[in-house]
Design a protein that fits this description.
The complex is a heterodimer of chains A (about 190) and B (about 100). Helix content of chain A is about 70%, strand content about 0%. With about 190 residues, chain A is mostly helical. In chain A, helix 3 (about 15-35) runs parallel beside helix 5 and helix 5 packs antiparallel against helix 8 (about 130-165). Chain A is elongated. The termini of chain A are far apart. The relative contact order of chain A is 0.17. With about 100 residues, chain B is mainly α. A two-stranded antiparallel ribbon of chain B has the order 1-2. Chain B has a domain at about 35-95: Arc Repressor Mutant, subunit A (Orthogonal Bundle), CATH 1.10.10. Chain B has helices at about 45-55, 60-65, 70-95; strands spanning about 20, 30-35. The radius of gyration of chain B is 17 Å and the shape is globular. Chain B is built from 3 helices and 2 strands, in the order ββααα. The chains are: A mainly alpha (about 190), B mainly alpha (about 100). The interface between A and B is medium-sized, with 14 and 12 residues.
C-alpha cells in the first residue's frame, strides 16, 4: 500500500502507469470542470466558480508539458539512460494528490467560503471569522498541506526511479527543477 | 539451509580472504592467502541478481516482470551493481 501511494514507479510497469495515469488525468479534467477547480500550475490547486472543459484540459496539458519540458533534460543530465516515458508517467501520476482537493468545491462550496476572504484581503480587519469559517480554513489547510507533501514525495520518488538520482547535487537540481517547472507552467498558461 | 559464505570480517568489517581449501574426496588441505573473486565479494542478493540477469539473457524487461518491479528500478539496481564491481576491481588493482 505504501509503495502504491508513495512510490508506484518502483513496482509498476510503464504501461500500467501510463494507463492508470492517463485515465486519472482524463478523469481529473472532467472532475475539475464539474467542481470548478483550477490546476493552474504544476503545484497549484485553486477553486473557481466557472471552469470550462477546455480550460481544465489546457491547464492539465500545460502541467504535463511543463513537467516533461523541465524534468526530462534534467533527468538526462543526471543519467543519460533516463527515458521520456518515465518522466511522462511521472507528470501524469504526480497530479493525482491534487484531485483529492476537488470534492471541497462541489457546488462551489470552497469558492464561496474563500471568495469573501480574498475580496477583503486588502482590509483584513473587516473579515468576520465565524467558527464554521475557521473550521473550514483549518480542514482545508491541513488537507492542502497533506496533498502538497504527497505530491512532492511522489515527484521525488518518481524522479529518483527514473534517473537513479543520488547525492546532494542531484537533490538540489531536483529542487530547482520543481521551481522552474512551476514558472514554466505559469508562463505557458499566460498564452492560453 | 546452506550456510552463507561470509565476505566481511565480523569483527572489523574488512574483506575476508581465503586461507584454506579442502578436497572432500581425499581430505587434502591447501593453505595460503587467496583473495576472493569479485563475484564472491558481492552480497548474496547481488549474486542472485547477476544470476537472474544471466539466466534472462540480459533482458532487464524480463527480469522486471519476474521480480515484479519496474524496468527503471531494475536498471538502476544493475547500474549500482556495475558501479560497485568497478569499485571492487579498482580496490583489487590498488592492493596489487
Amino acid at each position: 500500500m505504501k509503495t502504491l501511494l508513495f512510490n508506484p514507479f518502483k513496482k509498476y510497469s510503464e504501461r500500467q502507469l501510463l494507463l492508470f495515469g492517463g485515465i486519472m488525468a482524463f478523469a481529473g479534467i472532467v472532475f475539475a470542470t464539474l467542481t470548478n477547480t483550477h490546476f493552474d500550475g504544476v503545484l497549484d490547486t485553486h477553486f473557481g466558480k466557472d471552469v470550462s472543459l477546455k480550460t481544465a484540459a489546457i491547464q492539465s496539458i500545460i502541467n504535463i508539458v511543463s513537467i516533461v519540458l523541465v524534468f526530462y533534460p534534467v533527468g538526462k543530465w543526471i543519467n543519460s539512460k533516463t527515458r521520456l516515458i518515465d518522466i511522462f508517467n511521472l507528470s501524469l501520476i504526480v497530479k493525482i494528490p491534487g484531485y483529492f482537493m476537488m470534492p471541497l468545491n462541489i457546488n462551489n462550496w470552497a469558492y464561496f467560503k474563500t471568495e469573501p476572504l480574498l475580496s477583503a484581503i486588502s482590509n483584513p480587519f473587516n473579515i468576520q471569522f465565524t467558527q464554521e469559517l475557521l473550521l473550514f480554513l483549518i480542514i482545508t489547510s491541513v488537507l492542502a498541506m497533506l496533498v502538497f507533501v504527497w505530491l512532492i514525495v511522489l515527484l521525488y520518488n518518481g524522479f529518483k526511479v527514473a534517473t537513479n538520482l543520488k547525492g546532494t547535487k542531484h537533490i538540489i537540481m531536483f529542487t530547482l527543477a520543481i521551481i522552474v517547472a512551476e514558472i514554466v507552467s505559469k508562463v505557458l498558461l499566460m498564452f492560453f | 539451509m546452506s550456510p552463507k559464505l561470509p565476505i566481511q570480517c565480523p569483527s572489523c568489517d574488512d574483506a575476508l580472504k581465503v586461507s584454506q581449501l579442502r578436497c572432500d574426496s581425499c581430505s587434502t588441505l591447501v593453505s595460503g592467502n587467496y583473495s576472493m573473486p569479485v563475484f564472491l565479494k558481492l552480497a548474496a542478493e547481488e549474486q542472485d541478481f547477476i544470476l537472474k540477469f544471466l539466466l534472462n539473457s540480459g533482458s532487464l524487461k524480463e527480469m522486471a516482470k519476474q521480480m515484479n518491479m519496474s524496468y527503471p528500478t531494475i536498471r538502476n539496481r544493475l547500474d549500482d551493481l556495475i558501479e560497485k564491481i568497478n569499485r571492487l576491481k579498482d580496490d583489487e588493482n590498488t592492493a596489487l
